[in-house]
Amino acid sequence: VFSPQGLCALSINSDNCYLAYPGSATIGEVQVFDTVNLRAANMIPAHDSPLAAVVFDASGTKLATASEKGTVIRVFSIPEGQKLFEFRRGVKRCVSICSLAFSIEGLYLSASSNTETVHIFKLETQKEKPAEEPTTWGGYFGKVLMASTTYLPSQVTEMFTQGRAFATVRLPFSGHKNICALAMIQKIPRLLVAAADGYLYLYNLDPQEGGECSLMKQHRLDGSAEPPNEILEQGSHDRPLTAQAYNTAGMKGTRPGRR
C-alpha cells in the first residue's frame, strides 16, 4: 500500500519481531508481518480513517495506533489483534498525530500532535466495583445515563467507555512537528519532547496522581545557547544533567511507581 509518509513500525524484541504498516490507503487497516518466519501474522481493522501513527511496545506484544482524525488511540495485542485499550484524546477537533510512544515497561502511552497538548494514558485495567444504589440526584442521573447507552448509536456509546488521559503536558508552542519518548531518569518517569522549534523539553510525570506534568528542563538542540551535551535547568546553569542519562538501554527491569 502506498504511504506518502512511509508509515511503519518495527518491534525491537527478538522474540516478538513484527513489522506493522498500513493495509489500506482509505481506511485504518494495520498489516502485521512476522519478520522471523517471513509471513503475514494478522490484519487489524484499527480505525475507520487512514492510519497516522503506529508503534510497538518494547516487548512486541502491544501495538498502539491512531488515525488521521487523531481523536481516538487504540492498543491491540500482538499477534492476536485483540483490542486491549481505547483512549479518547479529544472530541472538539481533529488533529494531526505526530508521535506515539510507550514507556519501557509498557505502563504508559504518550500521544503528541500539532496542538500544544501531549496526552499520557495509563494502560491498566480498571477493576469492576460492586454495584451500589445511588444516593444523590447526580448518582441517579449517571445510572440512567449509562443505562441509556444501550439504545444509543455505537459511536455515542463508545465515548462513554473510552479512557481519558492520566496526565497531560502543555507545550510552549503549537503547530510544530515533534516526537516524544517516555523514560525513567533518576528513578522518576519523564516525558521528553523534541520539537521542530529546535528544543528538547523534559517533563516530570507523577506516577501516582498524574495530572498536568511540570517542565523541568529544556535544551537547545543545536547547542547555540547551552553546551551541546548538557540539559540545563531553566534559570540555572550550575546543575547540568548530561545527555547520557537518556540512554534507556538496559532499563527493562525498571518500573515507575504504581498506585
How would you describe this protein?
The protein is mostly beta strands. It has a single domain (9-124, 133-246), classed as Methylamine Dehydrogenase, Chain H. The chain is built from 2 helices and 19 strands. It has a 6-stranded antiparallel beta sheet with strand order 13-14-15-17-18-19, with no helix packed on it. A 5-stranded mixed beta sheet has the order 9-10-11-12-16, with no helix packed on it. Strands 1-2-3-4 form a 4-stranded antiparallel beta sheet, with no helix packed on it. The longest helix is centred in the middle third of the chain and has 12 residues, at 137-148. The termini are far apart. Mean pLDDT is 81; it is low at 153-157 and 227-259.
Task: Summarize the topology.
Layout: E1 9-10, E2 18-22, E3 28-34, E4 39-47, E5 51-56, E6 62-67, E7 72-77, E8 83-88, E9 97-102, E10 108-113, E11 117-122, H1 137-148, H2 154-161, E12 167-170, E13 178-185, E14 188-195, E15 199-204, E16 211-212, E17 214-220, E18 230-233, E19 241-242
Parallel strand pairs: 12-16
Antiparallel strand pairs: 1-2, 2-3, 3-4, 5-6, 6-7, 7-8, 9-10, 10-11, 11-12, 13-14, 14-15, 15-17, 17-18, 18-19
GO cellular component, one term: phagophore assembly site
GO molecular function, one term: lipid binding
InterPro entries: PROPPIN, WD40/YVTN_repeat-like_dom_sf, WD40_repeat_dom_sf, WD40_rpt
